[in-house]
Amino acid sequence: MLEYEQALWNQHYRLIAGVDEVGRGCLFGDVVAAAVILPPGRMIEEINDSKKLTASKRERLYEEIMECALAVGIGQVDSAMIDKINIKQAARLAMKKAVEQLDVQPDHLLIDAEKIDCDIKQLSIIHGDALSQSIAAASIVAKVTRDRMCLHWDTDFPEYGIAIHKGYATKQHREAILEYGPCPMHRKSFLGRLLNVQEQFLF
């Protein structure tokens, strides 16, 4: 998990930020990104792609990452902007915002399968959250951050069950949208086929 970081350390880069996002495939809510700079040489046991970890382990690792990180930045883009510019561009924008929120300027970025519009040197790594500790740390921070946001969204829109499925297209979520219609936080551009089915039932 430190192969990419070690190669950059060997080139005298010290402030390496891992960058990742979560929520790209959701029907509801913001896409959230994190940028994390860990101390050079620091190894965190059990760190991995956030999708491969239990919720309790993500929470524990989140606390460890936040405690030892040199800097953490969070970026988010809401559903209205996702509908306006498309999810790929929104994910990139959230990542850029996360980097801009770092308290210190990174020397180099390691990014999970994307490119960010900035002047900082960067490397895009396919499946980076399973190959780079820095990216995995960012994936954990982004996932825990968004999951906590989902708890707040659930209180505002309890009929959709956001706290359970986190906005993804589960059967429960799709049925709730058909029953209650979309709310302002739903990504309308993601709901075309589902709403067309609803119209067929109505008309």
From TrEMBL:
GO MF term (any one): RNA-DNA hybrid ribonuclease activity
Alphabetized UniProt keyword annotations: Cytoplasm, Endonuclease, Hydrolase, Manganese, Metal-binding, Nuclease
InterPro entries, alphabetized: RNase_HII, RNase_HII/HIII, RNase_HII/HIII_dom, RNaseH-like_sf, RNaseH_sf
Subcellular location: Cytoplasm
Enzyme nomenclature, EC number: 3.1.26.4
Cofactor(s) the protein needs: Mn(2+); Mg(2+)
Catalytic activity: Endonucleolytic cleavage to 5'-phosphomonoester
Comment on bound cofactor: Manganese or magnesium. Binds 1 divalent metal ion per monomer in the absence of substrate. May bind a second metal ion after substrate binding.
Domain RNase H type-2: 14-202
Coiled-coil parts of chain: none
Main location per the UniProt record: cytoplasm
Record-listed a divalent metal cation binding positions: D20, E21, D112
PROSITE patterns documented for this protein: RNASE_H_2
Keyword hit for Hydrolase: yes
Function, in words: Endonuclease that specifically degrades the RNA of RNA-DNA hybrids.
Family that this chain belongs to: Belongs to the RNase HII family.
Cross-referenced NCBIfam families: PRK00015.1-1 (NF000594), PRK00015.1-3 (NF000595)
Protein name per its UniProtKB record: Ribonuclease HII
Species per Swiss-Prot/TrEMBL record: Paenibacillus residui
